[in-house]
Amino acid sequence: MEKTDDFRRTVLVTGGGSGIGRATARAFAREGARVVVTGRRPEPLHDTAGEPGIDVLVADLTGDGEPERVVRAVLERHGRLDVLVNNAGIVVREGLGTLTAAGLGNQFRTNLVAPALLTQAALPALEAAGGVVVNITTSVGRRAWPGNAAYAASKSALEVLTRSWAVELAPRGVRVVAVAPGAVETPIGEHSGMSPAELAAVRRWQLAHTPLGRIGDAEEVAWAVTRLCEPGAGFVTGVVLPVDGGAVIA
Asked: Domain Ketoreductase, which positions (predicted)?
């Protein structure tokens, strides 16, 4: 049955300009949802919005008052918010011995503090809709990641929030889940400043530690996100679902 505007879900996807965010936004839009993608760079966001059903909202969620502004804008446009996908994340390539306060701060502000404050700002709307929060973490957070532990630590902390919020918000009718990608083809490596040779070395290591023996696609992660937001998943909360080709169990 075709969905009317009265029954179309509204979905907010952070970091929607590329990779998993873009694939997730487009997957929801193809299912008939009204999608808002947000991020810092307008051009990639508008590329994502080249498909029908996707709106653009440029924002830096680490800025003062930005989470509240983004939620207000979504509600002004669509009147409701059913799904929040906390996808935005950055990697700063610093290991122990080269750590800086700026690098640590940037990662934790983007990967942990911004999702927490955005979820808080969105909570009244999500409660009104009986909504879902999906946090995008990383399967690497369950293993050692020498030389890049701060990124994994920030995402692991987001998994703790996922479980805690699931219990805290269950009485309010809001489900909270997480999807933990493994080796997936996205531009996050290039965005972190990796050279082609460095990226190739990382890919070799990832392939060696992924039982299915290949790199995943962003669309495969988007599939997991959309399935966890279906009505049929209504009894699922607090789960962290790896989408990693078996890496966390190898």
From this structure: 9-187
